[in-house]
Amino acid sequence: MEPVAPRMTPEPISDAAARLKSSNRKTAFVLLGIAAVFFVGIIATRFIGSPATGISVMGTVVLLFLVVAIGRNLRRRR
User: Fold this and answer.
1) Based on C-alpha coordinates, what's the Rg of the chain?
2) How far apart are CA 10 and CA 8, in angstroms?
3) Does residue 8 lie within any of the structural domains?
4) Pair 41, 54: CB distance under 8 Å
5) Domain tally for the chain?
6) In this predicted model, what pLDDT tens digit does every residue of 14-56 receive, in sequence order?
7) How confident is the model at residue 10 (pLDDT cuts 50, 70, 90)?
8) pLDDT attached to residue 2
9) Is there a domain that residue 38 lies in?
10) Between 15-48 and 51-77, two packed helices, what is the crossing angle to 10 degrees?
């Protein structure tokens, strides 16, 4: 007779782990969006040919990142 291995049931995900996973996902999407805007901005600068466009796009992305990052921290403190 073969020994029977005990069945391992997955432990339920706690609320804190679920919130951490959700927060990590949101952060990943924000960073992915910023990377995409950088990429598109660099390509647009090449097609337009104006260095001012590149600086404007990069400045806008940095400003957007700061607004999102600060906004998320302010919302958590309430």
Assistant:
1) 22
2) 6
3) no
4) yes
5) 1
6) 788 888 888 888 888 878 877 887 787 778 777 777 777 777 7
7) low
8) 59
9) yes
10) 160
50-76 per-position pLDDT tens digit: 777 777 777 887 788 788 778 877 766
4 inside domain:
no
Q: In terms of residue numbers, what domain contains 41?
A: 18-77
> Under 8 Å CB-to-CB from 72, ≥6 apart: which residues?
26
Residue 32 in any domain: the answer is: yes
Spatial contact of 37 and 61, defined as CB atoms under 8 Å apart: yes
Taking residue 45's Cβ as centre, other Cβ atoms within 10 Å add up to 18
Say which residue the tokens 């805007």 belong to.
37
Residue 28: the pLDDT is 85
Q: Is 21 exposed, middle or buried (0-12, 13-18, 19+ CB in 10 A)?
A: exposed
